[in-house]
């Protein structure tokens, strides 16, 4: 099974000689883990956002929901509502590199939903200016579309977490291969050298200098393609770098063994810095040893160290490599292209007449060697023509990567070939257009998902949910015209709910006033009825609960008064029967004091008074 590795932007393993190679990683099935690899470390709560899947029900969206649900069981697995971190693929001075699944690709049922995610370390949280500078350079690196440079997708943050996303590579870092196989054969080393020159030259022509070029930042894919990593910390040449008050070297983004004297002294970066590092890398590939015993150029200069000549190089090649390794900047080729030309000069093709004359002369003199050289040049020309035709065919079928690779091969062989330049320009533009179309389609899918979620929230009369979905659609790039219909419906629903709430509150206030009036008038049944209506409308109403307690207390007091009054009236009746009319009247008046206008007490007073008046008339005066 193929080995799968990735080295992300900002890895800074110290490339100081042989050591134990990393363990091989195995390509995953969708729900498997890498054997022998570390699991993604959980992040502190609150640093990762929650995935909110669309209401769509395709197989891709269902799978994305399942992955998000599974990720939520382990804190820190879901990043930016999109990336499920699965396995740690590498660790360097700048942070961890994860193999991650892109839920947007899962939703789209992409057969390869995996990417690499570089989660930057604590240093960047502690150095805001470092974060800003790196973000600026990462944006530049996103514009580097070259087969020999790793593709950087995005640079983003999720809460306190700063991360980069990039293509996931299969193969091995060059430093690991060197530990296992160095020295390489001359043919392999020069083939890798050509690819590295192509990538660096492409970046330099766009004013991007690597500034930390070393075997640990070079990756060899399983298909044999060499890719340069870590352009996310490259610093722009010229005035833009001079104006920055942040040096990536402060965070370990500088390896002394591949650093020039100028870099060690903190001088502005130049293309020549990368030339020196490239020459060191070539020397290590050819010999298995560092040219200056893994010391920086400054230390090599102080120690007057001289690199030994690799046995496989002829005089011209060694002079060219020595120039690239020169400690003195003025003796070093100023550009990668100049270094490449010095080491591997291009063969020029003569005209037809010159070739014919040369052929006649060679054959007449018996010079078979010259004839063979001519045949080699013809074969090279046929190979160039074949590469150009393949590039055209690939361009016609929109296989821009294929077109770029073949056009670059021709340009590396024949820099002055205009057709390869034209094909390269068309392929790069087509690739950029296709990528933009993909991004636009992805954004449209995201927006549609958010709008559908907002509509579902509306259907359930959930205003806050709908507003949140609209905010996500707006953040994804939705235009006002796309948002307007649902936004208008949300506002209308919000107004309706607010009006309904006001009406309900007014009705509750009215019921409360009626209940209190019933209580004050002593109509407890009426008060209980209003309390029941209030609690039916709002079981948690504190005012209704208070009124119910008041009614219960009033009922209890009323019952007590009636019991007391009944006792006084019974005593009044007893007094009346004993013809103690004054006692009967006194007891009845006591009852009236408790319950004024009590009918039975008033009647008892009238009876006792009448009986008393009648008794006075029957008294004889002697």
UniProtKB/TrEMBL annotation:
Binding site for ATP: 118
All copies of domain Protein kinase, residue ranges: 83-344
Keyword Transport: no
Stored InterPro entries: Kinase-like_dom_sf, Prot_kinase_dom, Protein_kinase_ATP_BS, Ser/Thr_kinase_AS
Chain segments carrying region Disordered: 1-54
GO molecular function: ATP binding; protein serine/threonine kinase activity
Domain of life, source organism: Bacteria
Ranges annotated as biased composition (Acidic residues): 21-30
Record has Nucleotide-binding as a keyword: yes
Biased composition annotated in UniProt, kind: Basic and acidic residues: 1-16
UniProt keywords, alphabetically: ATP-binding, Kinase, Nucleotide-binding, Transferase
PROSITE patterns in UniProt: PROTEIN_KINASE_ATP, PROTEIN_KINASE_DOM, PROTEIN_KINASE_ST
Pfam families assigned: Pkinase
PANTHER family, alphabetized: MITOGEN-ACTIVATED PROTEIN KINASE KINASE KINASE 20-RELATED (PTHR43289), SERINE_THREONINE-PROTEIN KINASE NEKL-3 (PTHR43289:SF6)
Protein's recorded name: Protein kinase domain-containing protein
Source organism of this protein record: Kineobactrum sediminis
């Amino acid at each position: 099974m193929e080995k799968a590795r990735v080295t992300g932007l900002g890895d800074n393993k110290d490339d100081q000689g042989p050591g134990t190679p990393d363990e091989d990683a195995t390509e995953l099935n969708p729900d498997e883990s890498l054997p022998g690899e570390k699991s993604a470390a959980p992040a502190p709560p609150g640093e990762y956002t929650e995935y909110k899947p669309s209401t769509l029900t395709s197989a891709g969206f269902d799978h994305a929901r399942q992955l998000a649900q599974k990720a939520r069981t382990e804190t820190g697995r879901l990043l930016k509502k999109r990336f499920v971190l699965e396995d740690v693929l590498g660790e360097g001075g700048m942070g961890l590199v994860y193999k991650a699944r892109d839920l947007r690709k899962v939703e789209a049922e992409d057969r390869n939903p995996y990417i690499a995610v570089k989660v930057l370390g604590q240093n960047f949280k502690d150095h805001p200016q470092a974060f800003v500078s790196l973000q600026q350079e990462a944006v530049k690196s996103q514009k580097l579309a070259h087969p020999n440079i790793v593709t950087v997708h995005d640079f983003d943050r999720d809460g306190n977490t700063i991360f980069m996303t990039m293509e996931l590579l299969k193969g091995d870092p060059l430093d690991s291969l060197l530990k296992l196989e160095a020295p390489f054969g001359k043919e392999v080393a020069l083939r890798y050298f050509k690819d590295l020159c192509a990538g660096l030259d492409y970046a330099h022509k766009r004013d991007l200098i690597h500034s930390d070029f070393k075997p640990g930042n070079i990756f060899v894919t399983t298909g044999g393609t060499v890719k340069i990593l870590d352009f996310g910390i490259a610093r722009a040449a010229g005035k833009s770098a001079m104006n920055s008050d942040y040096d990536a070297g402060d965070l370990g983004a500088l390896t002394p063994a591949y650093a020039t004297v100028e870099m060690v002294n903190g001088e502005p970066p130049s293309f020549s810095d990368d030339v020196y590092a490239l020459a060191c890398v070539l020397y290590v590939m050819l010999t298995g040893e560092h040219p200056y015993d893994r010391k920086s150029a400054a230390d090599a200069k102080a120690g007057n160290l001289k690199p030994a000549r690799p046995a496989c190089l002829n005089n011209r090649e060694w002079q060219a490599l020595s120039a690239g390794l020169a400690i003195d900047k003025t003796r070093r080729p100023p550009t990668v292209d100049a270094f490449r030309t010095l080491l591997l000069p291009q063969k020029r093709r003569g005209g037809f007449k010159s070739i014919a004359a040369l052929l006649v002369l060679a054959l007449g003199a018996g010079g078979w060697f010259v004839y063979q050289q001519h045949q080699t040049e013809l074969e090279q020309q046929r190979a160039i023509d074949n590469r150009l035709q393949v590039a055209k065919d690939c361009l016609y079928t929109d296989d821009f990567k294929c077109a770029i690779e073949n056009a670059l091969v021709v340009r590396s062989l024949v820099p002055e070939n205009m057709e390869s330049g034209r094909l390269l320009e068309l392929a790069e533009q087509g690739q950029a257009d296709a990528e933009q179309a993909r991004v636009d389609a992805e954004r449209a899918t995201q927006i549609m998902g958010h709008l559908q979620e907002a509509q579902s929230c509306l259907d359930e009369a959930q205003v806050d949910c709908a507003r949140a979905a609209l905010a996500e659609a707006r953040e994804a790039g939705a235009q006002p015209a796309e948002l307007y219909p649902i936004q208008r419906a949300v506002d209308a629903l919000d107004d309706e709910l607010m009006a309904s709430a006001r009406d309900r509150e007014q009705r509750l206030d009215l019921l409360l006033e009626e209940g209190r009036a019933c209580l004050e008038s002593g109509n407890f049944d009426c008060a209980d009825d209003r309390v029941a209506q209030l609690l039916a409308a709002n079981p948690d109403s504190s005012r209704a609960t208070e009124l119910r307690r008041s009614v219960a207390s009033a009922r209890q007091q009323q019952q007590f008064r009636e019991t007391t009054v009944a006792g006084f009236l019974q005593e009044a009746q007893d007094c009346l029967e004993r013809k103690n009319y004054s006692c009967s009247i006194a007891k009845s008046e006591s009852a009236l004091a408790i319950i004024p206008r009590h009918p039975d007490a008033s009647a008892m007073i009238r009876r006792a008074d009448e009986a008393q008046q009648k008794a006075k008339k029957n008294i004889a005066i002697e």
